[in-house]
């Protein structure tokens, strides 16, 4: 990941947070992990580079997703070339159908793992067949950092912007509080791997875009 220094691709990267996420339950607010207090929403990010316009984790129902896209960027559905899912949880792919003309990507390990988990011929299984597996790189200038733990094949995006390394961490970092405490969410598949993934992000990130919170600055460890 040290190789990511802004070299090797043509244009600068521009990125915007489309929706600031929040959790159904947040133990750092004194809430119990045993029940949901609200419907969750994930943080959705737009990345623009080299003629590609990428939605990461489409967070709202399709119609609202397009409204938010317009409100935050003035862009239309047809201008979105790619969608990337950090992992397969429902709240991170809620609005994917708003972008039928885009290419849809998810980390290869997450696709492989989920194939064995979803019922045959379910909507989820159909969606999995439409997702293009990606491994280390999404496109020039945007790398994929494997961040397993929250889910088996979870992946974060890493890119350079204005001399800083940005990590769009998805649920590898739930919120700033979870991140600072090196803590993981109640539904985490592999807690040990989740903590290692947080440490991995902490080593390389200057800016972290968490799965369910606004972005924040990081002092590399
Ligand atoms: Zn999740
Ligand atoms: Zn989430």
Automatic annotation (TrEMBL):
The keyword Flavoprotein does not apply. It holds the Pfam family Lactamase_B. InterPro entries: MBL_superfamily_lactonases (IPR051013), Metallo-B-lactamas (IPR001279), RibonucZ/Hydroxyglut_hydro (IPR036866). Its cofactor is Zn(2+). One of its GO terms (molecular function) is metal ion binding. Residues 41-212 form the Metallo-beta-lactamase domain. SMART domains: Lactamase_B. Gene3D superfamilies: Ribonuclease Z/Hydroxyacylglutathione hydrolase-like. Keywords: Hydrolase, Metal-binding, Zinc. It comes from the Bacteria. It catalyses: 3',5'-cyclic UMP + H2O = UMP + H(+); 3',5'-cyclic CMP + H2O = CMP + H(+). Signal peptide: none annotated. Belongs to the metallo-beta-lactamase superfamily. Counteracts the endogenous Pycsar antiviral defense system. Phosphodiesterase that enables metal-dependent hydrolysis of host cyclic nucleotide Pycsar defense signals such as cCMP and cUMP. This is MBL fold metallo-hydrolase. It comes from Paenibacillus sacheonensis.
């Amino acid at each position: 990941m040290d190789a990511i220094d802004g070299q090797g691709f043509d244009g600068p990267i521009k990125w915007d947070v489309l929706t600031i996420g929040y959790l159904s339950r947040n133990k750092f607010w004194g809430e119990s992990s045993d029940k949901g207090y609200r419907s969750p929403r994930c943080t959705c990010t737009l990345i623009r580079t080299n003629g590609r316009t990428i939605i990461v984790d489409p967070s709202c129902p399709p119609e609202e997703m397009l409204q938010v896209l317009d409100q935050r960027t003035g862009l239309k559905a047809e201008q979105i070339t790619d969608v990337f899912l950090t992992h397969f949880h429902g709240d991170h792919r809620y609005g994917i159908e708003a972008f039928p003309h885009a290419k849809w990507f998810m980390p290869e390990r997450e696709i492989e793992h989920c194939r064995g988990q979803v019922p045959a011929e379910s909507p989820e299984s159909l969606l999995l067949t439409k997702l293009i597996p990606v491994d280390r790189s999404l496109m020039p200038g945007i790398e994929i950092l494997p961040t397993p733990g929250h889910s088996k094949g979870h992946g974060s995006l890493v890119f350079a912007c204005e001399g800083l390394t940005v990590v769009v961490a998805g649920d590898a970092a739930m919120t700033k509080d979870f991140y600072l405490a090196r803590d993981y969410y109640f539904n985490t598949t592999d807690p040990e791997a989740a903590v290692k993934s947080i440490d991995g992000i902490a080593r390389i990130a200057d800016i972290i875009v968490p799965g369910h919170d606004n972005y924040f600055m990081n002092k590399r460890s």
